[in-house]
Amino acid sequence: MKKNLTFILIIVISLILGAYGFYLKANGYREPMAEAKEGRYVALGLMSLREGVFPWNADESDEMRYAEGMILPPPEAYAEGETVPAVGTEGADREEDPAAPSPAEAETEEEEASASDNSAAEAVTEKEGETEGTNGAVSQNEAVSQNEALSQSEAESVSENEASWPPPFVTADESYFDDAVFIGDSRMVGVAYFAGISNGHFLAKTSMNIFWMMNTAPETDTSVASVREGLMREQYGKVYILTGINEVGGDTQYFTDAYRKVLAEIRELQPNAVIYIHAVTHVSAAVSAGNPVFDNGRIDERNVALRQMAEEEKVIFIDINEAFDDENGCLPAENSWDGIHPTANMYPLWKEYLLSHTVELNEGF
Amino acid sequence: MVFSSLEFIYFFVPVFLLLYFLVPMGKRWNVTAANAVLFGGSLFFYASGEPYYVFLMLASILINYYFSYRIAGEKNLSLVGKRRRKRWFRIVVAFDLCMLFLFKYAFFFSHIINQLLFALGQWAGVELPYLPEVSLVNPVGISFYTFQMLSYVVDVYYRKYAPERNILCMGTYISMFPQLIAGPIVVYPEVREQLHERRVKAEDFDRGVKTFILGLGAKVLIANRIGLLWTELERLGYESISTPLAWMGSWAYSFQIYFDFYGYSLMAVGLGRMLGFRLPDNFRDPYVSRSATEFWRRWHITLGRWFKEYLYIPLGGSRKGLLRTLRNIFLVWLFTGLWHGADWNFLIWGMLFFVLLMVEKIFLGKCLKKLPVLSVPYMLLVIPLSWTVFALSDLKRLGIYFTRLFPFLPADYNSNVSRGDWLRYGQTYLLCFICAILLCIPPVKRLLSKVMRGVPGTILYLLIFFGSIYFLAQGLDNPFLYYRF
Description:
The structure holds 2 protein chains of 2 kinds.
Chain A: H1 5-26, H2 40-50, H3 62-67, H4 75-79, H5 87-99, H6 103-113, H7 119-124, H8 126-132, H9 142-160, E1 180-184, H10 186-194, E2 201-204, H11 227-233, E3 238-242, H12 252-269, E4 274-278, H13 285-290, H14 296-313, E5 316-318, H15 321-324, H16 348-356
Parallel strand pairs in A: 1-2, 1-3, 3-4, 4-5
Helix pairs in contact in A: 1-2, 5-12, 12-14
Chain B: H1 6-22, H2 28-47, H3 53-73, H4 79-124, H5 142-157, H6 167-175, H7 177-180, H8 188-196, H9 202-236, H10 243-274, H11 292-298, H12 301-312, H13 321-340, H14 344-370, H15 372-391, H16 395-405, H17 421-438, H18 442-451, H19 454-474
Helix pairs in contact in B: 1-2, 2-6, 3-4, 3-5, 3-6, 4-5, 9-10, 9-17, 9-19, 10-15, 10-17, 12-13, 13-14, 14-15
């Protein structure tokens, strides 16, 4: 017995950890690793420590932990409508405050509400653009056709109605990024290092996601402890957000609601900034076909929802996929090693795209 | 199933050990029962990853068993008997090699032949028939177990030892799960006695557990961590990495492959010891070698031994003149390269070592031995460069990587290097590099093995074990949110 102390201790500790993991599970702690069959409770017991769940606070409910920003609410519970944080309406309320001075905007909102006779607004609105079928066959890649519809409508809206949303894209020069801040996941890290934008401020971190975005410590700027702190420290004229690929697996409504919440907070912190949100980026055809989660169809579905949300929230939706996609609406395999991240030498395209997709908003927005 | 998985550690090992130690050890029939458990467990282990190829392995075992028995059973010592022995021997060796060729190399070679046919057809202006390009999935571990079987039948043919009568022992020897999928390549005399009579002492079991933990730590805590750097470079695209980062990447890969393989071998040896076997060591601090020749005496020792015993020496070794020696060394390295994989870069890699070993044999070796000033920088180049060739099967990408390593080489691609990238990655991976470098130095390892004794040692082992489990758990995919990018 004594000679095999190591082995015995491994068994004992594993059993304790497993029992603890089991206890957590029984108490409603969600299971982050549903794919693990063997040793799942041991893993659960160990991984809970990383999330700040310790034996002395293990009896706290997940909702409390969510409130403390430690974990995410379980998507299933959310889908059942149990713990719905009323972010949608909240976001809309908050959003009005900074927007209030602009009379043009109020107009837009009205228009949208009764978007029946305004042809520009009609084409912009997703669903109607689809049912109209003005742009020919409804291809499997919805996002592409929607982009076309959008650009058509943009052309119209310039001449017809300046107040409509989104405002037309114009091209800017590099100084446009002087007062810009870029928030996002690993691709934004790539933009930080490889796109050639030297004057912007980057608050990016690999594996960033919308749910934890504000609390995430950026890796491109280690002087701030979180994105929130970075946004508090300085006032910017433009905020660029890129996220969505890590979150593709979950529920769309859940995702956009979380997004609205983040947008509302950014509005509060940066009342004078134009907010650009990136579309979820497409993956390569191989990844899309071979991976149950990263599916371009699903990503397009997300982008439809994001575009609509952008309209409602009055932020600018930019579809970077236009710059990167091949003819099938996928990230070309030769431009990406893993089918998700563009290779470093592709990133200058990103800058080009952003510069050619800027908007000029009226004062006071 | 790999050793460094929760499935193996928390499912396979506990269930298997329970069954294995239910059988009381020591007596003859008990060993048979224990072998049966080990054989059955190993088949389950293999089948969980290769549900179809497990039958291929079983068929191979049966055929090798039968033929080796026939070879040794030939009592007729006349010329006829000798011929018959030779015939049996040739059939079984051909069978083993054909299996290996079919599953591992058929695609590569049929592809080459088709390319040649195509070129020939274009030159002659006719359409030539093409070979079918069979692309079979390479059965896990086929290179390892085929080599073990070959060593066995060769030894039986040359009467080094009598063939195994007990098919269970033979099957257990080949399929024993600790060494089945990634070696070490065991020769039969090393386990023969233990297959017939073994006892697991408490000390041995403890040693085995600890060796396993060290291997697990090497794989999960070092190889997997430092390997992330290599993955990141792939993601950036080699076109866009700075020269210092390229060298860092090559070294990261060198450490990854060493600690991965070394860790796996340690786990194998540890598991073997827990079950009452003494499997041979596969590595002896290869990265402190002073020459490529010495490197190969310390790296994957059981493979080098195999090629020496069963290819180099039968071909005549170095006893038949310089030309024959050259040819023999060339063949050894050609096959060593191919053994590691069916692709051009492995051939280049093998040839690289052929050239290095030749040069060292002729003149460089003596200088290297005397002058550490020369041998240290020499190995600091040879190790990462050879592994870079090994790592990149796509020759185009290999070419690009080399133009990053040596920026004076002509490059014709669109490069977008981020300034100071190596500093950024250097910071992130500094700890990994320090640990990896320290663990390559024998005095440090000796010091550690002194520390890792008694109660403090036990605590350290537990930390390594649960640290590894933690990282394994962390690596599991979250089904809802892929927080990875």
